[in-house]
Amino acid sequence: MNLRSSVDIISEWDIVAARQLGRNEAKDIGFGTVDQARITTAISELARNIYLYAGKGNIEIKQITESKLKGLLVIASDSGPGIPDVRKVMEDGYTTSGGLGAGLPGVKRLMDDFKIETVVGEGTTISATKWLR
Amino acid sequence: MMTRIPILKLRDCLIVSIQWELDDQTALAFQEDLLNRLHTTAARGVVIDLTPIDFIDSFIAKVLGDVINMSGLMGAKVVITGIQPAVAITLIELGIRLENVVTALDLEKGLEKLERELEA
Asked: Quick count: other Cβ atoms within 10 Å of Cβ A92?
């Protein structure tokens, strides 16, 4: 089973749309209130990063199953400037926007799996999964 | 479709109940509205109740933190009430520390705490 849905991030309002979609999907597959909040918050941060740093992009939300484990995969992708120093953005407290938008380390803590692929000048794709326990 | 958050005055305090998920524009408008009400009413304290809110991201946290500091500049104390367990957990995991913020479990305890703060 591979249910997917996505939201294009173009304006601030799309950040709201993306996190609402995420919360609904999380509720739908049976996450409790704390995990729903974690997933919603993580999506909000990822969508805001797209809006702030890339201007536009996409949030895709997929229900996935892996060796009997159900989970929710969030893919945030953009064709923005890319991240020159991934190690640096994964340090707590690093910001280029004066504290707006997310700490990626925070998103990593909220989710179970976290992966960044980024090429300077081409864009960034972040995949984050929360598993249903 | 920006909505405005109602701000109620009770004696020398302002009471705000945030009832729905905040988008960026509503949050920023609230910041301005609250400071204007502080200015026009000369209120000395504010209680912001977040009971119905089921998540707070870094942006909303920043707006809340800012409005608390801004109110402080205008001589008013702010108490935040009704933070849900899921919200407390995700804020800390996200790495957000609302330092020096006075909080209380619910509106009633928040008002009591505010009265004590104002008497002190």
From this structure: 10
